[in-house]
């Protein structure tokens, strides 16, 4: 029984660990540079997958971007220089977390704007609701007698 649980736990460990798409041939010999490359590639969007970092994508373009990042780091570029180079070449879309500036203010501000508009709508609805909602209805004599007949006939049933 113990061996069954040991095998089961090993299977979960193997199958539930994240799989990265970095090939062993892409890895840099220097562990510090490799760590920097992995950190940078986790912040870059795969242009094919679009919702995944290049670190976890198997797409050929993601592989090319990973190699480009490693080449730039090997050439002595800083992390900021590598990111600036990639953004200059592929545009802001390549960043998984876009920078805050004039062109992206709406992207960052939209949730707050929507929240503010929703709060204002709720406040307006509550303000309208607090007014006197009962409107007195005046019935004519014919309507009153008909209503009494309906009520009296329903009591007999």
Task: Please sum up the structure shown.
By secondary structure, the protein is mainly alpha-helical. 60% of the residues lie in helices and 0% in strands.
Task: Draw up the topology in text.
Blueprint: H1 2-16, H2 31-41, H3 60-74, H4 79-90, H5 105-129, H6 141-156
Helix pairs in contact: 2-3, 3-4
Keywords:
157 residues, mainly alpha, Helicase, Ruva Protein, domain 3, 2 domains, 60% helix, elongated
Task: Tell me about this structure.
The protein has 157 residues and is mainly alpha-helical. The protein has two domains: 2-94, Helicase, Ruva Protein, domain 3 (Orthogonal Bundle), CATH 1.10.8.640; 105-156, no CATH class. The chain contains six helices and no strands. The protein has helices at residues 2-16, 31-41, 60-74, 79-90, 105-129, 141-156. The protein is elongated and about 100 Å long. The termini are far apart. The model is unreliable at 16-20 (pLDDT under 50).
Tally of discrete structural domains: 2
Overall structural class, as computed from helix and strand content, comes to mainly alpha
Assembly of the depicted chains: single chain
E-strand count: 0
What's the CATH first level of the largest domain?
A: Mainly Alpha
């Amino acid at each position: 029984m113990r061996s069954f649980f040991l095998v089961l736990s090993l299977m979960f460990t193997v199958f539930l660990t994240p799989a990265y798409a970095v090939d062993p041939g892409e890895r840099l010999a220097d562990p510090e540079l490799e760590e920097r490359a992995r950190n940078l590639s986790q912040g870059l969007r795969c242009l094919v997958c679009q919702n995944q970092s290049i670190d976890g994508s198997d797409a050929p373009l993601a592989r090319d971007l990973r190699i480009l990042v490693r080449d730039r780091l090997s050439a002595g570029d800083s992390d900021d220089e590598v990111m600036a180079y990639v953004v200059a070449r592929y545009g802001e879309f390549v960043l998984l977390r876009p920078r805050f500036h004039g062109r992206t203010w709406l992207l960052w501000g939209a949730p707050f704007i929507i929240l503010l508009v929703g709060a204002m709508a709720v406040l307006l609805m509550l303000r309208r609701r607090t007014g006197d909602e009962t409107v007195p209805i005046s019935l004519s004599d014919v309507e009153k007698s008909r209503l009494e007949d309906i009520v009296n006939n329903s009591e007999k049933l």
